[in-house]
Write a structure and sequence with these properties.
There is one protein chain. It contains 14 helices and 24 strands. It folds into two domains: 191 residues, 3-Layer(aba) Sandwich (Rossmann fold), CATH 3.40.50; 187 residues, CoaB-like (Rossmann fold, 3-Layer(aba) Sandwich). The strands form seven sheets. Strands 15-14-11-16-19-20-22-23 form an eight-stranded mixed β-sheet, sandwiched between helices. Strands 3-2-1-4-5-6 form a six-stranded parallel β-sheet, sandwiched between helices. Helix 5 packs across helix 8. Helices cover 31% and strands 23% of the residues. It holds the Pfam family Flavoprotein.
Length: 423
């Protein structure tokens, strides 16, 4: 008989800590055991008694428990686990993890463990977007930790944006993915003991469900390109990369092998995604071709149409009273059209088109010109580029679907649902 998997759940201090109760229930329903470590600030939101009752195990709160050190050393706590899950992982806890600080039980366990660690961030959008947090996320990835991207949406503080803790069923899916999948021992659809599943009707591929893109390779481009003029100037656009990264995360959740070719953006790599960083259109084209073959290609990146014919080796100086010397531009390769003609053309080829007027008309013309299967046209006349929401037209040979303005992660989920139905 197979031994049950052991989860060590570290609960940080944030309002999202209340969701740890449902996560514990889901872990137990999946036939696993769970031990909880509650930080001092986490104890301001949930109580050890609640966690102990749900987990059916003692809850550990301090490094200085003589009883715990006699019966189970704090090092052993983490080493007996098959996976260490930090949920919620606050900005403060992520910073300590990235810096190797060990000043309480939770951070000492994290520094001492050789077990895989999955961190699930939750914090205010400004804290999430802060350069210090993004540096810490990047360092944790280098150190081999897995950081699950947060959701976007309304927050307890009244703001909107990335930083929401993903719903417990989505976290459970991620846990199962890093433990090698599930065998149907947990049911995450319909009613749970805590009421309706918050992801009911969403493409959250639960541990008991077949992951519909398993065995498929999905190639995605995201973000802008930068075309250098001289060492300090370049041609670029306002693409944030958020939509492409959200699609990559949704494809990985659906079980796909995902290659994400990313222009210069400051976004964390979605869990389970292989990321290739590029800067120019020529580099992006080479990376796309190098990633082939792929079953599905989704070209979301906003590739610069032109580049400077030659790059100045030194900064171009402005001369007072002189007219600006003309900048000679040449056309960049059309990566989407080139992929449509490639001998390794993906089975489903989807292009994105940023438009400010005549959205459907221009998108349908591009569908023919680029010889792709779908065009996802988004209206960028407002704050879409760099914003948290998107409004799209899905243009195919069979017609056009118009989607209302939605958060970009929801656009990604709907698009993945449509792709899965198509294939």
């Amino acid at each position: 008989m197979t031994e049950p998997k052991h989860i060590l759940l570290i609960i940080g201090g944030g309002i999202a800590a209340y969701k740890s109760s449902e996560l514990i229930r889901l872990i137990k329903k999946a036939g696993m055991t769970v031990r909880c470590v509650l930080t001092e600030s986490g104890g301001q939101f949930v109580t050890p008694m609640t966690l102990a009752a749900l987990s059916e195990n003692e809850v550990h709160t301090t490094l200085w428990s003589l009883k715990d050190e006699t019966e189970m050393g704090h090092i052993q706590l983490s080493r007996e686990a098959d996976l260490v899950v930090v949920c919620p992982a606050t900005a403060n806890l992520l910073a300590k993890m990235a810096g190797g600080i060990a000043d309480d039980l939770a951070t000492t366990l994290l520094l001492a463990t050789d077990t895989q660690v999955l961190a699930v961030p939750a914090m205010n959008v400004r804290m999430w977007d802060h350069p210090a947090t993004q540096r810490n996320i990047e360092q944790l990835g280098v150190d081999g930790l897995i950081v699950m991207p947060p959701d976007e949406g309304d927050m307890a503080c009244g703001e909107f944006g990335p930083g929401r803790l993903p719903e417990p069923p989505a976290v459970m899916t991620e846990i199962m993915r890093h433990l090698g999948g599930g065998d149907g021992s947990s049911t995450l659809t319909g009613e749970t003991e805590l009421g309706p599943n918050p992801l009911e009707g969403q493409p959250a591929f639960a541990p008991d469900q077949h992951r519909p893109l398993h065995g498929k390779h999905v190639l995605i481009t995201a973000g802008p390109t930068r075309e250098p003029i001289d060492p300090v100037r370049y041609i670029a656009n306002r693409s944030s990369g958020r939509q492409g990264f959200a699609i990559a995360a949704a494809a990985a959740e659906a079980g796909a092998q995902v290659t994400l070719v990313a222009g210069p953006v400051h976004l964390p790599t979605p869990a389970g995604v292989m990321r290739v960083d590029v800067e120019t259109a020529l580099e992006m084209e080479a990376a796309v071709h190098g990633a082939l073959p792929a079953d599905i290609a989704i070209m979301v990146a906003a590739v610069a149409d032109w580049r400077a014919d030659s790059r100045a080796e030194q900064k171009i100086k402005k001369q007072k009273g002189d007219a600006l010397a003309p900048l000679e531009l040449i056309e960049n390769p059309d990566i989407l059209a080139g992929l449509a003609q490639h001998e390794k053309r993906p089975g489903l080829l989807i292009g994105f088109a940023a438009e400010t007027e005549k959205i459907e008309e221009h998108a349908r013309a591009k569908l023919v010109k680029k010889a792709c299967d779908w065009i996802v046209a988004n209206d960028v006349s407002g704050d879409v580029m760099g914003g948290a929401e998107n409004s799209v037209h899905i243009v195919t040979a069979d017609g056009t679907e118009i989607w209302e303005r939605l958060p970009k992660p929801e656009v990604a989920r709907r698009l993945l649902r449509k792709i899965i139905e198509e294939i």
